Amino acid sequence: MGSEYFDYIRDLLKDRSGLAVSLDKTYLIDTRLLPVARKHGYDTIVDMVKALKIRHNEALVVEIAEAMNTHESLFFRDVEPFELFKNIILPQVLQRRKDTRRMRIWCAACSSGQEPYSLAMLLHEEAHRLSGWNMEIVATDISHSVLARAKEGLFSQFEVQRGLPVQMLVKHFAQEGDYWRISDKIRKAVTFKAFNLLTDPRGLGRFDVVFCRNVLIYFDLETKRKVLDALGGVIAPDGVLFLGSSESTIGLTEQLWPVEAGLGVYKHTGSPPSLAELP
Amino acid sequence: MKSCLIVDDSKVIRMVAKKILHDLAFETVEAADGQQALDACKANMPDAVLLDWNMPVMSGIEYLRELRALPNGNLPVVVFCTTENDIEHIQEAIEAGANEYIMKPFDSEIIQAKFTQVGLL
Ligand SMILES: C[S@@+](CC[C@H](N)C(=O)[O-])C[C@H]1O[C@@H](n2cnc3c(N)ncnc32)[C@H](O)[C@@H]1O
């Protein structure tokens, strides 16, 4: 692919979803976008880009941005963040919010729903402590197709075996052929919405807990900074942010600091890192 | 090194499972049916058992009930690994004392995920 075509795709992706592709990842463009080009009647990606340069086609641009995203997710991903949530963060919030009895959680890149549903199942286990509480889980993603899947709540046999304890499978899912459907109770505990992290999140309100896991890794530095600053603006002063295991706020924002090194949890008044931890 | 008893009447499945478990740093012992598995446990209690359901001589579920009644039989972490993938079988397995349940077809990723979940890894 000529560099002007590569540049066009790179700019489109950065602009639309924040996805950063370096030259050594061009094979990803080839494998993921050739099917899109073919579907729209072009023989090559270059032909598709040429056509787009002549005449903008919004639906195709959206499809291109979507095809390049990685949607991989699993239930209770990495286990520990969810244990921390249940054992440390949740009791703290219940204590701090005991007057309003309201707790708001945001999954900011929820993919097909495994992350918010994992949280909803955890809250269900704690139901005895939550009576009279207004618990809200807002789950968003840029991709309409994964959101549709998430709302449907139907998971393959492979998906329900990744991270989901079998006791929870039996308790919260019903079998439909080779698929498993999550119960209405858990499904209704989550509100799904489309939201692009490159835009202003303040319209979603304020949150006690934000999960924004395994999406910053795809962004360049400037985009990571912008997104983290924006998240800082909607996380309550005593709220927390969960990032993925290879993500951090260090060196990217002045607002959120690790609660403790290596935990993957960040808050407004955490401890600024020692020099050794700076990248 | 942790030990895992692989119980399956298919030699091919035992081979595949053995390869995966060796990669996860387990020592493995094999049994072709529930009776052999029970004898193996009486001789030496493993840390984990990867257990098929349908086998000649003694089925996986019968073996599991007998295992849990043995002295120290509550120690091994038992993970079913079977083509019986309906909710009734899964429930029966949990009631009999299974810790986890893998629905075939399985791969190394699923075994690894399940073993991590039950604290074996
Ligand atoms: C790898 S998944 C992570 C799913 C889940 N958080 C987890 O950790 O398992 C990344 C998700 O981020 C979404 N995404 C990518 N760019 C985004 C953006 N600019 N705004 C919102 N979501 C975005 C993708 O559509 C994809 O579903």
Could you walk me through the main structural features you see in this protein, from its secondary elements to its overall organization?
Chain A has 279 residues and is of the alpha/beta class. Chain A has two domains: 3-68, Orthogonal Bundle (Chemotaxis Receptor Methyltransferase Cher, domain 1); 80-268, Vaccinia Virus protein VP39 (Rossmann fold). In chain A, 42% of the residues lie in helices and 18% in strands. Chain A has eleven helices and ten strands. In chain A, helix 2 crosses helix 4 (58-68). Chain A is globular. Chain B is α/β, with parallel strands linked by helices and 121 residues long. Chain B has one domain: Response regulator (Rossmann fold, 3-Layer(aba) Sandwich). In chain B, 43% of the residues lie in helices and 21% in strands. Chain B contains five helices and five strands; from the N terminus they run βαβαβαβαβα. In chain B, helix 2 packs parallel to helix 3 (60-69). The termini of chain B are close together. The relative contact order of chain B is 0.17. The chains are: A alpha/beta (279), B alpha/beta (121). At the A-B interface, helix 9 of A face helix 4, strand 5 and helix 5 of B. Bound molecules: S-adenosylmethionine. S-adenosylmethionine binds at residues 17-18, 69-73, 77, 109-111, 115, 141-143, 146, 196-198, 213-215, 244 of chain A. S-adenosylmethionine is lined by residues 17-18, 69-73, 77, 109-111, 115, 141-143, 146, 196-198, 213-215, 244 of chain A.
Per the CATH scheme, the topology name of chain B is: Rossmann fold
List low-confidence stretches of chain B.
none
Strand order of the largest sheet of chain A: 6-2-1-7-8-10-9
Number of separate helices of chain B: 5
The main sheet of chain A comes to: 7 strands, mixed
- What is the number of strand segments of chain B? 5
Please give the alpha-carbon distance between the first and last residues of chain B.
Answer: 11 Å
Bound molecules: S-adenosylmethionine
CATH superfamily of the largest domain in chain A: Vaccinia Virus protein VP39
In total, how many domains does the architecture of chain B comprise?
1
